[in-house]
Amino acid sequence: MSTDAKQRPVYVISVAAELVDMHPQTLRLYERKGLIRPGRSSGKTRLYSERDIDHLREIRRLTQELGVNLAGVEEVMRLQHELDDIQDDFEAEIERLEDEIRARVQNQALPSSGEASGAAPDPKDRPVYVISIAAELVDMHPQTLRLYERKNLIRPGRSSGKTRLYSERDIEHLREIRRFTQELGVNLAGVEEIMRLRFELEGTRSKLEGRISSIQQDIQSRMTAWRELPAPAASEAESGEE
Predict the structure, then answer these.
(1) 47 vs 22: CA distance, rounded Å
(2) CB within 10 Å: which end of the chain, N or C, has fewer?
(3) Which pLDDT value is given to residue 88?
(4) Does residue 1 register a pLDDT over 60?
(5) In angstroms, what CA-CA distances link 144 with 136, 138, 141, 150?
(6) Which residues contact 197 (CB under 8 A, 6 or more apart)?
(7) Distance CA 12, CA 52 (A)
(8) Neighbours of 18 (CB within 10 A)
(9) Which residue has the higher pLDDT, 87 or 45?
């Protein structure tokens, strides 16, 4: 199913509730909490898309199968919505670039020199802290950091000698994990889901930015090659007129 089809709001609340085996009041509660974002008809009737149905099934899995509390579910769905929005923005950007290609072919214009430059690596991803310093920065025991790594909640780098090295982003992740577990009471299963989505979000954003940069570079190279093609000889042009 295409992304557009999955986003199309088509199900009234009674049908959506039946599809996910929930009470309609539960769907209204989840909407108030920001866990789902149904559309509206011209008459303000709630309409749910296939994407909403997928989200509701994921909420049920988190709460019923994994025992994640509502605070954890809210964070999971916030990240999921952010992923959805990035995907939508990417598709809109691809459409814009395709329009730009067509316009430049018609106008015989070159892209500006700065458009194709790729993004520089983020300094926050540079692994710099050994485990003892990282543990001190987040007020945790080093063994806790090792546990979180085994659970794939964080992914520290390695030096050439295989020493764990943590980045500023790892430190942010660890502080978030502590907030979920200590302040919000999210269980470890919920934290695993949250961090899995966070990694997916960061990876998706990086890949999409790289893809857009690649497309822009391709536009530039194609247009440059086109402009450098030799002009038809005068004799060829004349023979074509006869």
Answers:
(1) 16
(2) C
(3) 81
(4) no
(5) 12, 11, 5, 10
(6) 76, 79, 80, 83
(7) 12
(8) 11
(9) 45
Distance CA 58, CA 77 (A): 9
Tokens matching residue 223: 């247009």
Do residues 207 and 87 lie in contact, with contact meaning Cβ atoms separated by under 8 Å?
A: no
Tokens 């509502």 locate to 70
The pair phi, psi for residue 239, each rounded to 5°, is -65, -30
Distance from the Cα of residue 65 to its chain's centroid = 25
| Gap between the Cα atoms of 181 and 68, Å rounded | 11
pTM above 0.90, yes or no: no
Q: What percent of the chain has pLDDT over 70?
A: 78
CA distance 79 to 55: 12
Contact 216, 111 (CB under 8 A): yes
Query: Which tokens hold the place of 200?
Result: 């997916």
Using alpha carbons only, what angle is made at residue 24 by residues 23 and 25, rounded to the nearest 5 degrees? 90
Q: Which residues contact 215 (CB under 8 A, 6 or more apart)?
A: 94, 97
Exposed / middle / buried, residue 189 (Cβ in 10 Å: 0-12, 13-18, 19+): middle
Joined together, the tokens standing for residue 20 give 């996910």
Q: If we measure between CA atoms, which residue out of 25, 23, 52, 26 comes closest to residue 37?
A: 52
Q: Is 72 in contact with 193 (CB distance < 8 Å)?
A: yes
For 132-170, what is each residue's pLDDT tens digit?
A: 999 999 999 999 999 999 999 999 999 888 899 999 999
Q: Is the pLDDT of residue 50 over 90?
A: yes
Mean pLDDT rounded to a whole number for the chain: 82
